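Dissemination and training. As part of the outreach component of the grant, students in the summer workshop were shown how a complex can be specified as a set of sequence lines and then modelled as a single object. The example used during the hands-on session is reproduced here so that future cohorts can follow it. Participants entered these lines:
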Amino acid sequence: MTLDKYTEVYLPKIKHYRQDLSKQVEPYLPLIKNIDPSKDEHFNAAVEIEKLLSPKELKITGLTTRELIDKQLQNELTAVDIYNAFSKRGALAHIFTNCAMELFFPEGLERAQELDDYRIKNGGKLVGPFHGIPISLKELMKYKGKITNAGYVAFLDNIITNPDDESLTIKILRDQGAVFYIRTSQPQTVMHLDTQNNITGRTTNPFNTKISPGGSSGGEGAAVALKASVIGIGSDIGGSVRVPAAFCGIYGIRPTTKRLSGLGSLSGGAGQESIFATQGPMTNSIDDIDYYMDAYINKGKPWLKDPNIIPLEWKLNYQLDDTITFGFLTTDTIVDPSDSIKRGLSYVQDKLTKFTGKKCIVKTINLDHELMENAYKQNKQIYGTSKPTHDEILNKSEEPILPLTQVFLNFANENGNNILTNNIVKEQTKLYFHQLFENESLDFIIGPTFTNVAEVPDNITHWFYSSMFNLIDFPNIVFKTGLTHDSNVDLQGPSNMTNYNPNDYINAPIGLQLTAKRFEDEKLVACVRLLDEVLGL
Amino acid sequence: MTLDKYTEVYLPKIKHYRQDLSKQVEPYLPLIKNIDPSKDEHFNAAVEIEKLLSPKELKITGLTTRELIDKQLQNELTAVDIYNAFSKRGALAHIFTNCAMELFFPEGLERAQELDDYRIKNGGKLVGPFHGIPISLKELMKYKGKITNAGYVAFLDNIITNPDDESLTIKILRDQGAVFYIRTSQPQTVMHLDTQNNITGRTTNPFNTKISPGGSSGGEGAAVALKASVIGIGSDIGGSVRVPAAFCGIYGIRPTTKRLSGLGSLSGGAGQESIFATQGPMTNSIDDIDYYMDAYINKGKPWLKDPNIIPLEWKLNYQLDDTITFGFLTTDTIVDPSDSIKRGLSYVQDKLTKFTGKKCIVKTINLDHELMENAYKQNKQIYGTSKPTHDEILNKSEEPILPLTQVFLNFANENGNNILTNNIVKEQTKLYFHQLFENESLDFIIGPTFTNVAEVPDNITHWFYSSMFNLIDFPNIVFKTGLTHDSNVDLQGPSNMTNYNPNDYINAPIGLQLTAKRFEDEKLVACVRLLDEVLGL
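and obtained this result:
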């Protein structure tokens, strides 16, 4: 029997890659010598990690970007202090959830030291708005001098040798003082709302190892929730920022496309332009999203390097009107969400109705089933357009096709897509939603991010709660409700699920999706600030 | 022998349509009783029309939008005065060049009267920034209560009965006080850089009836050059604003897409999104373009109704830096332009070099032939994507396929397009041009709009001088050089032409194309003001 190409050529590469990754966390293993995550199938990494930290580390990693910048300016913290606290959490986060694809602690430390030295030599001046801020990066962002594999075994040799090819976002953030030490996991083909690949395996949810952290930016979801970084850079073409944000109980924005640059990202989706991907920051505080967008857009000016980016200023600290109208979306008309999601929606609706700080009008919105069904069909076909490229890359290494990869590859229309129909239905849907906002005088739509709270991986097949907004390019933020799944009351699963077990989802946070009209990204941020207040977070 | 569908069903409709059009100009026919255009194959309508006007009419139709607004505010002119002067020119323009597809003089007059009445009742107040301004409209813009056929015989019954379906631009301009009375001609399928259809026939060049006015907004080109309106609304997906602007000696902007709305336009290109069409105003003065963009964008706020439009403010009276660098493009590396175009480029280059009012640096730029060849191939294939829709509409009426329609239909790849390759090459080309601007420190590129000055129709097959910029969505303005074709010196035609006769192009203006980076639309306007000064226009 001869070995196949995957076994012979690629398994050794995978082994080597994993060894490099494991080696990075070796110094941290003594910290967890008394913990055995395998003893609890619902292991809660978030709780366990906090037990392993000093009060100072806890305090530092609880600060926002602006606070960390201020503490440095006041000489209360150094970049090295900040780095040490976050990187310790990063190591533990990876040990417990397998959220990293690459770790480079020595470089991170060196960079933090260099930033501290810069301040000493420059009268306390900061390099830029991210001076000393640990930012985690989704693996598909090309990083100079490092392998970028985008979750494909075939790209395990793909070292970014030309610095010009590096992700523009990485360049902008580095120029603004960011500290990098962790690149986070993503699924094979990037087209799962889960995080599993053949290189580093599966990433788990930070609150319950039985369930998924979401995906495709699932490594970011886990890393940010566990405070491995202040800000994580995800990307989203069908829910890949928002689903992990919801599953991991953090904030994540999918801004209107072409405000943040994806230049220098590796993906099998190149050339598919009916739905554009966008990057989006994922954070523990809504202030961090506002801060990030302001610094990246207004100071980073990505349009100077990326001709696809719109030179539209970010309006920091956007102010909402005195009266706000919310449309509540409880079903996409195709799959009804679980009890926990429904409970989250009712809870927020109730809190808004009772809120006295602002006039909040609440409505229920009902979508046209026929339109939505056709929109979902076209939506999937559009994703399927890039199947030939994915097939080619997968075939190159002969790596096993993972179950959720197969789900995605099946989106492609066997007889080839009709791109004209795809786009015409997309535009109809876009106009339909625009007019829905207009006719109902809506400021925002609140709805599910996914059919359920953080889900067991096999069930993550229905993308439409998130992907409908990629189709029409209306921006969203996932926000926290403060609630978690309750196995005693959330007895009913999503309508497409037959194997729902309410006990699977212990500790799973209930995150919901807020949507505004195109280019109203700042208004979304302002509204999440309001929601945090309304919900007492 | 039985009659075919076209002859039996559609020819009577065409006859009826033409009769309606002719009837509108009947009252004006006595004006031209001593003129027989057919006696001169190079008949110059522009010169002849001016002989038929009173000094007052000449004066009014020589004013810019801002001047016409000021004259109304100063009570020196009424909307009816303005309407009468422009509409007389419009009637004559149509008689000589066949530039209209629909004329509705009584409605225009009624509207002008209504606007005057409004001022009387409202203490002299204007309805909006286009109060009393005659604006001509390309036929494909859906007009409530009227047929919109987009140059297709099959759409001769397509009356826009629901006012909501009307072109958003028409609604915005009407709300701002514009006066409509002329809808202008366009070619079959809209995809010619010439203007001929089976409904109203061929439109001719205002300076020389033997040559084309360009297209597809060729009716606008002729109408605006002959001052039937102050501003003409064209649209451009491959050169359709710029080629007629160049051929007719006027200004025309193709702004970055998604600043002006095309909502409510009729075309066979729906769903083709790799290259977006955009509207663009065509004018006799660069000030009118600046004025139009400011009023339409900043006051019209098209994004409130059209979710595809970017809420990016128009910067009126943009100021250029003290030093400006121009890259001169003399060939697209595929077809070399004619002597007249080369002479125009040399002339502008020379004037810029000698100009002392600002530091103008002039460079020659050379494009990568291999990239450009591939880009043009993909460019044509992208246009060809919509062939099935065009075929279907053409088949419906069985109207004859015009020669330039066949050229366009042949763009389609027989084996079906690879949309991924189309878009990947597009993005490579976009980045290539962006980096060309950056590496050469260019502010602008000046180059041909087309391979020749206004051309005889059959030769209008090479689109790439204009369409390369649709492919990469870099904005352009066509500007006047002040020169015209000279049959004594412009002896050599474009390199793809075997039947060039320098005597064909008598009086043809030499218009060139100015290009800036994406979203630098205002900078283009400012530069054309500078060029007007440099060239003494």
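The domain at 323-534 of chain B is CATH 3.90.1300.10 (Amidase signature (AS) enzymes). Students were then asked to discuss how this feature might be tested experimentally.
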